[in-house]
Amino acid sequence: MGRAEPLAFRRGAKPVVHARSAGAMTLEAIEQLLKDTMGLDAASIGRSAVARATQERMSASGLSDHQVYWAQLNASAHELQELIEAVVVPETWFFRDKEVYRALASVVRDGHLQNAIQCDTLRLLSLPCSTGEEPYSIAMTLLECGFPLDRFVIDAVDISTRSLALARSAVYGANSFRSGDLGFRQTHFEQVGTFWHLHDRIRQAVRFQLGNVLGSDFFPGEAIYHVIFCRNLLIYFDRATQEACIKVLLRLLKPEGYLFIGPAESGVLLSHRFISAKIANAFVFRPPSSMPAAKAPVAVSKSMDDLVRQRAAPAATRPSIPSRHAPATRPTIERQPAVSMPPDSRDAITRLADQGHLDEASKACEAHIQAHGLSAWTCHLMGLIRQAAGNARDAIPYFRKALYLDPNHYEAMTHLALLLEKQGDATGAQAMQRRLKRLTRQPGR
């Protein structure tokens, strides 16, 4: 989820609370403090989640009075950071959504970006970087594309000091490896007991730091990065905070650069005139000032039927990485055939959704259902379309149908848990979280 800096790095005025009911009013003030500090819209995760985190910190501090805790929170930057740590729950793994890394391999090797970096160091940003799986996956992808370590720089930023400590240690358990294809783990990690230690070669390729994308001193300068990963951050912000964040991303991204976002965030980027890179299933955009490339990079995933089968696992199958003893070869990026497709084909529907044409995607998806019947894939996509359009209540039934058709559909389960929490259904959200935990503990996940 969204990260930001602790209060120690911000010097703005704190919200003032006038005494009314101790519990409810203090929780509202805490929600506002978190929004002012880290941009978090409490409604995006459910106000009950903020209440639970607050209660957790009150218990840890030996306090039972909300107003006393509020006073401590305002007086102590350390306590505010502890509350942020309690609110932020990292959920990530290596090569999460393999299509994203296939797309990264494509954009750094093909088209105008390759020309731009011939005489320049490739610069990338992972924000928020959580416990490090994403930026390390980026580093592994670049190495497999043939980039030497001295040709790229990866900055990784997060608000959570605990997450950053775990990222820097580069020691991971089974939960960070959630697919059947673990060739990269054999190549880039060493097993020590039940944990896996990342090789120093990869670990040293990433520069971690504490930071807040909304802070006035966040990465001063312009046009720094060729590629920015900012996936599933905007969904935790309200519209005004999204605007502020996008301005920062636009400032940091080079005119020829690429911005990778989450599947429910396409509409936000398109409303700010970002241009879809038209890479299926990856949600990649270019800044408004960019000119169309003479030859747009295209990364093609396997058939959508394959992707549906992969949904039974928490993460999509990852790119195969050769053994350290095998000859170094660049991964093959298959290209989409330049043929027209029926308007209800899965690739066409996915492309419409990727580009933010939500109404057209919805109609095409409904036509696909009429022609071929319900599937976990179509139900999940309809849920994403409804969620991206801001219709959370309409999205929930589709995610439920996806889980009925595929009880192990990890993405549908994750989105449903988040939406139920946001709608105030704490019981339903907790049930989904328990299912997620059971799923990730299954052998091979």
TrEMBL record:
Presence of keyword Kinase: no
Residues of the CheR-type methyltransferase domain: 27-290
InterPro entries per UniProt: Bact_Chemotaxis_MeTrfase (IPR050903), CheR_C (IPR022642), CheR_MeTrfase (IPR000780), SAM-dependent_MTases_sf (IPR029063), TPR-like_helical_dom_sf (IPR011990), TPR_rpt (IPR019734)
TPR repeats: 376-409
Annotated region (Disordered), positions in chain: 311-346
UniProt-listed GO biological process terms: methylation
Coiled-coil region(s): none
CDD domains (UniProt xref): AdoMet_MTases
Signal peptide region: none
Molecular functions per Gene Ontology: S-adenosylmethionine-dependent methyltransferase activity
Annotated PROSITE patterns: CHER (PS50123), TPR (PS50005)
Record keyword Nucleotidyltransferase present: no
Record key words, sorted: Methyltransferase, S-adenosyl-L-methionine, TPR repeat, Transferase
Protein name stated in the entry: CheR-type methyltransferase domain-containing protein
Organism annotation: Dyella choica
Taxonomic placement: Bacteria, Pseudomonadati, Pseudomonadota, Gammaproteobacteria, Lysobacterales
